[in-house]
Amino acid sequence: MTRRLKLDIPGPDLRVSFDDVKAKGWPALFAGDVETPAGAPLRLVLEIGFGRGEFGIELARAAPDVAHVGVELSFRRVHKQARRLAKGGPRNLRLVHGRGEMALAELFAPGSLDAVWINFPDPWPKKRHHRRRLVQAPLVAAVAERLARGGVLHVATDDAPYAEHIDAVLAAEPLLENAYAPARWLAEVPGRMPTAYEREWRALGRGLHFWAYRRRHA
Ligand SMILES: C[S@@+](CC[C@H](N)C(=O)[O-])C[C@H]1O[C@@H](n2cnc3c(N)ncnc32)[C@H](O)[C@@H]1O
Q: How much is the pTM?
């Protein structure tokens, strides 16, 4: 029997379109749900490729005064997450259906993000598919430009060849510095919430790789 995706949203719909963001801006889209001190800019955190979405929910719960945005390519994942949030979830989270690369370019101003999370992006192991990998130099440069000073790009993967590629791309970005230096990456980050994929890979005993790269001040 095929499982149908329930398309109704049983409560407030926290999805926003590219057009909504361009027309209204993030402060208006989070009005009433995120308290910002008078005159202070809205603090924004972005997660690209949230998958099953539990990590973004925990992040949003842990920082109710920060606006969280999850961008996901899969319509099904966005829909499921929207249904889950409508039934009762943090209100300081908005969902965008689309490509992280496009969302970054079109929806976030330079210096506007406190943090960007990319957890367990698809590794695309075949060489001819490497160009489909999310973590590439232009994406990292776009993230770096949009991070506020001191803002952090977090990346994680279980895939050893992709880890080498990610490490090289991050280390080559002049606007970012390795917060875990002198380590290239960490295999464990104390206190970090595991994502759905992370739990699966840990159970299989796969080695994990975590990076935190901070936006330089200069
Ligand atoms: C391997 S899953 C990891 C999901 C989740 N981050 C986790 O750790 O459990 C990768 C996710 O990234 C999404 N994705 C792939 N390419 C993307 C892109 N260009 N922009 C946004 N999401 C993307 C996929 O649909 C999928 O949900």
A: 0.96
